[in-house]
């Protein structure tokens, strides 16, 4: 029996984020990546934790080892168009139960009005 | 043959584990106030006839602004920086933008033409260095966009901080007071 994909991937992602987060008091950035079937393809959706905004001026990206880059987007942005008003997503051709690559996002803390970059090795 | 995709909900968190603490501890610390400012070596400059160097600015107060045009918090702060430049350049302040991209080149932040366009859009007339390899960012231990480092006439880091601010708000007045303090020395 195949191990639950979510557990395997989550472990990898958690390891990746340890190397990439930088909070002022050791507080990590919090992002969640949700994958779901989308017709014959896979839709990845990026969700930010409360207090964090995802920078819409710099579309989050999934870089695959073969050099392909998928950008996350959303039709709705904040009134100032700086942030996503709904979680951005990207559509990957085909069905995938795991993804290898680098996920990048610019996340902005609303309490301190700063942005920082998150790079996760998937 | 395609396989069904289970619904994944992956929480990307960095718990306060020893490993995480070690990672954080090994990162560069914020600019060390009271120590000599490290010399940057950026080669690509805008709004400057030649690359500016720290030794060449000795005797002037220098405010470094680490920013990138894709950062809303950064561009919101630009009017205050333009104001500082307008008020204090002739009194001895040199404001320098250190334009440090967040993403790899495919995002366009590395392109000189895009930076030039942003300078025009926001009315920035003070010198800007392209920090495309993030060397100056790392040299100063910067972590956030926007960040600020204020260097005195002797080349020492006197103040450092980060975060958006606006004309005449509390943070603006704080930085304004710090600049005036160093100009008076």
Most extensive contact: A-B, 52 and 43 residues
pLDDT averaged over residues of chain A:
78
Average residue pLDDT of chain B: 87
Strand content of chain A: 35-45%
Task: Specify the oligomeric state.
Answer: heterodimer
Instruction: Please write the CATH class name of chain A.
Output: Mainly Beta
Tell me what the structure shows.
The complex is a heterodimer of chains A (122) and B (185). Chain A is mainly β and 122 residues long. Chain A has one helix spanning 5-18; strands at residues 31-38, 41-48, 52-54, 61-63, 69-71, 89-92, 102-109, 114-121. Chain A has a single domain, classed as Immunoglobulin-like (Sandwich), CATH 2.60.40. In chain A, strands 3, 4, 5, 7 and 8 form a five-stranded antiparallel beta sheet that branches. The two termini of chain A are 23 Å apart. With 185 residues, chain B is an alpha/beta fold. In chain B, 30% of the residues lie in helices and 19% in strands. In chain B, strands 2-5-4-3-6-7 form a six-stranded mixed beta sheet, covered by helices on one side. The termini of chain B are far apart. Chains A and B meet through helix 1, strand 1, strand 7 and strand 8 of A and strand 1, helix 1 and helix 2 of B. Strand 1 (31-38) of chain A pairs antiparallel with strand 1 (8-12) of chain B, so a sheet runs across the interface.
Summarize this structure briefly.
The complex is a heterodimer of chains A (122) and B (185). With 122 residues, chain A is mainly beta.
Layout of secondary structure:
The complex is a heterodimer of chains A (122) and B (185).
Chain A: H1 5-18, E1 31-38, E2 41-48, E3 52-54, E4 61-63, E5 69-71, E6 89-92, E7 102-109, E8 114-121
Antiparallel strand pairs in A: 1-2, 2-6, 3-7, 4-5, 4-7, 7-8
Chain B: E1 8-12, H1 18-25, E2 45-46, E3 61-67, H2 72-88, E4 93-99, H3 112-122, E5 128-130, H4 135-139, E6 147-151, E7 157-162, H5 170-184
Parallel strand pairs in B: 3-4, 4-5
Antiparallel strand pairs in B: 2-5, 3-6, 6-7
């Amino acid at each position: 029996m195949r191990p639950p994909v979510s557990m395997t991937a989550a472990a990898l992602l958690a390891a990746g984020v340890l190397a990439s987060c930088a909070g002022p008091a050791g507080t990590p950035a919090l992002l969640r990546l949700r994958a779901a079937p989308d017709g014959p393809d896979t839709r990845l959706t990026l969700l930010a934790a409360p207090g964090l905004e995802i920078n819409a001026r710099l579309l989050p990206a999934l870089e695959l080892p073969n050099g392909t880059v998928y950008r996350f987007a959303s039709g709705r942005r904040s009134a100032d168009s700086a942030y996503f008003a709904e979680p951005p997503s990207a559509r990957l051709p085909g069905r995938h139960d795991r993804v290898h690559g680098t996920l990048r996002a610019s996340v902005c803390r609303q309490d301190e009005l700063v942005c920082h970059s998150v790079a996760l090795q998937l | 043959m395609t396989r069904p995709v289970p619904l994944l909900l992956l929480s990307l968190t960095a718990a306060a584990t020893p490993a995480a603490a070690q990672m954080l501890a090994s990162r560069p610390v914020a600019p060390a106030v009271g120590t000599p400012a490290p010399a940057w070596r950026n080669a690509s400059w805008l709004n400057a006839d030649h690359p500016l160097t720290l030794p060449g600015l000795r005797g002037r107060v220098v405010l470094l602004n680490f920013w990138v045009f894709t950062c809303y918090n950064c561009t919101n702060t630009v009017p205050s920086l333009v104001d500082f430049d307008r008020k204090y350049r002739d009194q001895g302040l040199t404001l320098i933008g250190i334009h440090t991209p967040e993403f790899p080149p495919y995002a366009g932040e590395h392109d000189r033409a895009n930076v030039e366009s942003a300078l025009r859009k926001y009315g920035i007339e003070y010198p800007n260095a392209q920090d495309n390899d993030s060397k100056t960012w790392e040299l100063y231990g910067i972590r956030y966009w926007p960040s600020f480092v204020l260097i005195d006439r002797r080349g020492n880091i006197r103040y450092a901080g980060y975060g958006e601010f606006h004309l005449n708000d509390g943070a603006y007045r704080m930085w304004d007071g710090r600049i005036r303090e160093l100009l008076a020395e």
